[in-house]
Specification:
The structure is a homodimer of 243-residue chains. Chain A is of the alpha+beta class and 243 residues long. Chain A contains 8 helices and 11 strands. In chain A, the strands form 3 sheets. Chain A has a 6-stranded antiparallel beta sheet with strand order 5-6-7-10-9-8. Chain A has a 3-stranded antiparallel beta sheet with strand order 1-3-2. Chain A binds a DNA duplex (19 and 19 nucleotides) through helix 3.
Chain lengths: 243, 243
DNA sequence: GAGTGGTCTAGACCACTCA
DNA sequence: GAGTGGTCTAGACCACTCA
C-alpha cells in the first residue's frame, strides 16, 4: 500500500483547482450561480486561459461545475433535476422516473455510535439527526431509507423544514444548510425484508430487498451523510454504466 | 426526446478519435501494444499534437487507451489485472479480491430467443454460446452466472478453450477471439434464490441474492455479451462510486 | 541522452447565447 | 455585436522511462 500523501510536484492547473475549490467551499460562488469567466479567472490568478480551462474541466468532470457554451460556467446545484437524478440510481423497469414522493416517518436527534462516528469522522456520542422516510416512484412506494447527518451541520433541521423541501434531501442540504453533496460511495447487497421494512413497503417478511449503503461527501471529500436504503426491486432496478 | 443522430458540426479532434477507433477495431493496434506517439499521429493526420492529445485523452478516459508518461500510450487490455477488476464490482466486505476461481458448469450452443436477439442486435434463432459457471472469491463460492454470446463471433469456443483461460472471460474474448469488451450496462435487483442457484451457492431456496444483468459492448457500442450473475452478498458487496 | 507523455503559454478563430 | 466557452495551432519546457 502506498501512502496517500500528495506528491511533491503539483502542476499549476492543480493548484488553480485547489484555489477554485476553496472559493466554492467558502460559499463565494453559490450553487446555481455562474463563476467568473475563464479570461477573468486567468487574470486573477496570473496564468493563461488554457491553465484555467484545465482546472475547470476537471471540476466539470467531477460534476462540481457545469459548463454551458456561450453562457458561462456554473456551480452545480441539486436544485437542478439532472444533478438530482445522478444520485438516484433506481428507476422503474419500464420507463423513467416521472414523479417522486417522500413520506417522512421519523426525524429525531440521536447520538453517534462508534461506527457512524468513524465513518463521519466525528467523535462517538456526538449528536446526529436521523431521518427515516419512504419514497414512492410514479406513485408506487418502493424505497424505505434512513439518513444520518451530524446535527451540528444542520441546525434547525426538523419535520417542518423537511416538509418544505419534499423529497429532495440533497437540494435541502444545499439550499437550507449550505452543505453541497458532491460525491458518494455506495455498497449494494441483497437482504431479506425484516418486519419493519416489510410493513412499510407492503411486502412479506423475508422478501428480497436491494440494500444500498451510502457515504455522501461534500467538498474536500468530507463525509457528511450516511444513508441506508432498502428497495423493492420487483419492478424496479438499480442502473449502472461501466466503462 | 431528441433524435440521437450525430450533429452536423464535429470538431477535428472528434474526427481524429473516430480514425483512432477504426484503427483499434481493425486490429492494427492490439490490446497491450503501444500505439504510435502523439507526434507521429499528428504528422500522419496532419493536425497539431494538441488535437491528437484531445482525441487520445477522451479514449483514455473511456478506458480504451492507457497513457503512461515517459513510455507511450497503450491499447487497454483485459490481460491487465487492473482492467479486469473494473468489470468485477463484487468484493469481500473485509478486504480485496486476492484469488478468483471459476468452475465451468455448462458450455453449449443454443438459439437466440427474441429478447436476447433484440439485445444483441441479431436475428431471432441465430446460434449463441451459453456458458454457466460458478465463481469463488478468495476460495469462497459466491457467484453463479450465465453468459450468452453470438456463436459467430466466437468460433471454436468450447470447454477446453475456457479451461485454458480459467476465470477471465473478457481476457479470453480478447486474446482468443479478438473481441475487446470496452463498456457495459448493468441493472441490479435483489431476488430470491431458486433451487438451482441455491444448490450451486450452498444456500437455502428463497435466500436473497444480488442479481446483476449486464449487456457488454465492444468498439462502436456493439453489444456482444449478455450476462446474468447471481451473487450471495452475505459477506460480499457490489461497490459503486457516484460523482 | 533520446524519446515519451504532461504542462503551460499566447494567440487566432469558431459555435453559441443573449440583449 | 459583445461576451461566453470550445477548438486548434505552434512552440517551449518539464517529468518520466529506459537503454
Amino acid at each position: 500500500m502506498k501512502s496517500s500523501s500528495t506528491p511533491a510536484y503539483q502542476p499549476l492547473y492543480r493548484q488553480i483547482k485547489v484555489l477554485l475549490t476553496e472559493r466554492l467551499e467558502s460559499g463565494e460562488w453559490k450553487p446555481g450561480e455562474p463563476i467568473p469567466s475563464e479570461i477573468d479567472l486567468a487574470q486573477r490568478f496570473s496564468v493563461s486561459q488554457g491553465t484555467v480551462r484545465k482546472a475547470v474541466n476537471e471540476l466539470a468532470h467531477e460534476n462540481v461545475l457545469v459548463r454551458r457554451q456561450g453562457r458561462g460556467t456554473f456551480v452545480a446545484s441539486h436544485a437542478n433535476e439532472h444533478t438530482q437524478l445522478g444520485f438516484l440510481r433506481i428507476s422503474p423497469d419500464d420507463g423513467g422516473v416521472d414523479t417522486l414522493q417522500a413520506d417522512l416517518i421519523e426525524c429525531r436527534r440521536i447520538k453517534a455510535d462508534a461506527s457512524a462516528a468513524r465513518q463521519l469522522e466525528i467523535e462517538t456520542g456526538q449528536p446526529l439527526m436521523r431521518l427515516r422516510r419512504a419514497l414512492a416512484i410514479n406513485g408506487r412506494r418502493v424505497i424505505y431509507e434512513e439518513a444520518r447527518v451530524p446535527a451540528e451541520l444542520f441546525p434547525g433541521l426538523d419535520a417542518f423544514v423537511l416538509e418544505q423541501h419534499r423529497c429532495m434531501l440533497y437540494s435541502m442540504y444545499e439550499s437550507a444548510f449550505s452543505v453541497k453533496i458532491v460525491a458518494a460511495e455506495e455498497r449494494l447487497k441483497a437482504v431479506a425484508a425484516d418486519e419493519e421494512s416489510a410493513t412499510i413497503l407492503g411486502l412479506t417478511v423475508g422478501a428480497p430487498l436491494l440494500m444500498m449503503v451510502r457515504v455522501a461527501y461534500t467538498y474536500g471529500r468530507k463525509p457528511v451523510e450516511l444513508r441506508r436504503s432498502l428497495c423493492n426491486t420487483a419492478a424496479h432496478h438499480y442502473a449502472n454504466d461501466i466503462s
